[in-house]
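Annual report, structural modelling task.

Input specification for the flavin mononucleotide complex:
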Amino acid sequence: MADRLSPEALNQLFLDARSFNRWEDRPVADETLEAMYDLLRMGATSANCCPARFVFVKSDEAKARLKPHLDAGNVEKSMTAPVVAIIGHDLAFADKLPFLFPHNQDAKNWFANPAKAELTAFRNGTLQGAYMMLAARAVGLDCGPMSGFNNAGVDAEFFAGTAIKSNFICALGYGTQEHLHPRGPRLPFTEAASVL
Ligand SMILES: Cc1cc2nc3c(=O)[nH]c(=O)nc-3n(C[C@H](O)[C@H](O)[C@H](O)COP(=O)(O)O)c2cc1C
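The model returned the following structure:
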């Protein structure tokens, strides 16, 4: 049996973790992004399909390519962030199943139906995006997730010639309290859950 995490760890992952809009002027090392990826990749996906693909927009040049596709309210918070992750999912994820799910070489064929492949990619890619946010916090980063952008525009700019579709983006860095509104309430267990 694993022990419950310490209060400090729970604060870092959940209780004190916020969605940040402004950032310290402090770079994020590529090694930190790799450490984050090495954690998130262990999160569960169906048939271990691992459909998420990540682009870490870090350079001024890459940020300039992202900027025109952002909703107006997301421009400053993204452009001032050290990194903006584009979380996408590969509709052709099944091609890698012979490697990822080696004990059943037939698994690739389970996703021959494009609608099933798309649903599976979106579901598991979204899960992996959430794993990314928790992994980011685990390595000491803060997150600013955003869905306010033009997905088709981002796909054409960053994923042309592939079967990868963007899902959401997430600023990564070291957040500041600036522009941080009070924490919103959450639904209590009795309203959001039932035990049957
Ligand atoms: C998938 C997703 C999309 C979001 N899109 C935006 C967005 O486009 N712009 C924005 O300012 N905040 C966006 N948010 C931030 C949410 O409003 C924020 O996470 C929520 O209010 C909870 O805030 P807290 O984490 O500080 O408690 C998004 C969050 C998620 C998870």
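Helices lie at 7-15, 30-40, 60-66, 75-79, 97-100, 114-138, 151-158, 189-192.
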